[in-house]
Every structure is written in C-alpha cells, then in structure tokens.
Amino acid sequence: MLRGASNLLRLCSQHGLRQCSETNAPRMVGATAIRSYSDHVVPERLTSLQHDEDPNFFDMVEYFFHRGWQVLEDKLVDEMKGKMPVEEKRKKVKGILGIIQPCHHVLEISFPLKRDTGDYEMIVGYRAQHSQHRTPCKGGIRYSLDVCTDEVKALSALMTYKCACVDVPFGGAKAGVKINPKEYSEHELEKITRRFTIELAKKGFIGPGVDVPAPDMGTGEREMSWIADTYANTIGHLDINAHACVTGKPINQGGIHGRVSATGRGIFHGIDNFINEASYMSMINTTPGWGGKTFILQGLGNVGLHTMRYLHRAGARCIGIKEYDCSIFNPNGMDPRELEDYKLNNNTIKGFPGAEEYAGEDVMFEECDILVPAAVEKVIRKSNAGKLKCKIIAEAANGPTTPAADKILIDRNILVIPDLYINAGDRKSVV
Prior knowledge:
Blueprint lengths: L1 H14 L41 H23 L6 H15 L4 E10 L5 E10 L7 E2 L2 E3 L5 H17 L5 E7 L8 H17 L8 E2 L8 H12 L29 H14 L2 H6 L10 E5 L3 H13 L2 E6 L4 E3 L6 H11 L9 E2 L12 E4 L18 E3 L8 H9 L3 E3 L1 H4 L2 H4 L3
Parallel strand pairs: 3-5, 3-6, 4-5, 7-8, 7-11, 11-12, 12-13
Antiparallel strand pairs: 1-2, 2-5, 8-9, 9-10
Helix pairs in contact: 1-2, 1-3, 1-4, 2-3, 2-4, 5-6, 7-9
C-alpha cells in the first residue's frame, strides 16, 4: 500500500496535483482546453475558500488538493496497471488519495528559556510530519512569530508534494519555533536550538533516515550546525551517520556546495523553461527570452537574493524589491552584488543608494514582466490580485496565492508557475 501511495503521489504531482486546478502545467487561461472532472466532491468546509480573502493555510492546501483530485482521479484510474475491474481500481485510487491528504503526525513542544537578562520565558515549537510514504521526512525549521500548528501542517504537506513533483524519495515535514530571532542574542538562540533538538529527538522527530530538518526562514548554517552537534553528542552518539540528521550545515561540517543558492537557482531554471518557449510567451502576449525582461521581488532573504542574482545574470532587470521594513524601486535596474553588500553592512535595504525608496501603494503593483513572491504565504489575495501588472508570477514562496486570487489570475491571463514545481530546487540538492 505504501509503495502504491508513493507511486501515485509522484504521478499526481507530475500530472497536476499541485496548487493548480485549471491547467496541467502553469495556471493560465490562454489555451483553455476541455477537461473532464471526476465526481469527487470538495468537502463543504472548504468550499468557501474560493472566495475568502484570508483563508486558513492548511485548509487552502487541502482545497487545492481536492481540486487536483477532481482533475486527476479518472486519469489515474485509466493509468493504473493490473487486471482488476475498473471499480476496484477506482476504489484503490480513492483510498490512496485519501491516505495522502491528511497530516500524519504533529508535535507541539514547550520549554523554558532563561534569558541573558535573567528573565524566564516559555518557548513554543512545532514539528509536523505530513507523510511517511517515503522516508526520511524532509522539511525546514523556521523561526518566526507567525509559526503555528496550521502553518507547519500546511508547509509539511507542500513538502510532500514538492518532493514527489521532482521525484525525490522523501516524505514532507516542517518545523517552527515561535520567536522573532532578531530579539534574541546568539547565546539565547543556541540554547533554544539545542533544547528544541533534544525535544524532537526524545519523540523520534529527528534522525538520519527518520526525519531530517533543514534551514528555513530565520535559520541558517549556524542553527543547523548546532542541531547536528546536539544530536551527534546525545541520542546519536553511537551512529556513524549522526550528522546526517540535518542538511544545510556549513561546508566544513558536512554541508555541500551549492546548497545555499539551490532554491534561487531552481527558481531561475523553472522560469527559464517557460520564458524561452515561444508558445507559452505568445499566450501571454510577450516575446520569448530574457532580454529586456523586468522583475520585482517580494522578499530579499536567501531565496530572493539568489533568484535576483541568477535572473540578473540571465539578462533580466530587477526594478523593485519589497521587504518587511521598506520597498525600493529603480526602473533602470539594481546590481545584486551592490545590494547584497549594502544589506550585509546595514542589515536592511532601506537607504540603498542604487534605488529610491518606494512611496506608492505597493511596489508589487508596478508594471513588470515577472513578479517573484519569495517570502511568506498568502501575499497574493483576492483584494490585490486584480492590481498586479505582471505577466508571469513565479511562486518562490510556499503558498503565496490564495484560491480566490488564483481564479482572478487565471481570468486575467497571467502565467503562474506554481511553488510545487518552481521552488523545489533545494530538494534535489540534498539527494
């Protein structure tokens, strides 16, 4: 049954079980085709999501899952090998899809922290394992005040589907600690990270071949090295592969070259596959190739920065960037190296001399060829999808588009390259 689930999940992802319901590859209306849908019914509790401004994140992922189910069920029944009757095949397909949908394990952890000031504080963390159809489970650890059960469940589900989409043999997982890392000293962050690792290990939620975390928003090589060291010197002290309990480590501690830029490089290649295809570009009334193309980034973290580098190198021009504290704009383009150096020195892009601080409503609404949401979920919503003036959206973030916004983008003939495909680049980097 698990092998069947694994194969079916891979087929689902490759044929469209992504955040995509109206077309097989990118979401667009340019080449509408007649498509049959199965009689599968989206659960009533999810039907309002196609109109909601701010849906629950995991509900949003489940809604897209059920829309994918409707699109794919008949096709999966037809493709299933074997001599069993069609009705038996259908029952098996329905059963396996039902197994794939829910999040299998969710762990919530609370532990005390003594701050450097002598004050005490309770820290809350989560780890969700969406699917163990293939092991180990794989997914990052983020430090953010937005972390909650719903978020880690949704992100772990997306990890399952992304791994299947690029045929990497992992199940999906995700973890988060509900803190703002900027408000803690390095010493405090180390204590939080090491204690969180111990708590995960005690419950079997970390380990080589079992559950392998990675960096995410608010974490990096430093945190991964603390996790590896803690695991290797405690529960994994007899395991020669103990340091394989986590990826994204520093190179001198078992990390691999290219891991840091892997997602950004994947974003570039994902866009490249479409932008050089004349048939796709003609559907959105633009020319193929990178020459003269402009793009706007929402978020300049690790993914956004490396995406900017690769797109700039290909010949595109970054004209705008939206960050948490300000937005900047330069219609002539910005140099990624100069911007990176400035941000490293100032810990912000505010005041960058190579661009003006944006004073309009939202820099994402400026006219451009490519919009790259590269930060958090649900940034493209029903209320702003109609204001976007881009021709392509490359979903570098996880779940940046709500179902209601998705429908608006389809109607407006905007090419949406889904996160399930385009930001799965770093999964390949850990195989």
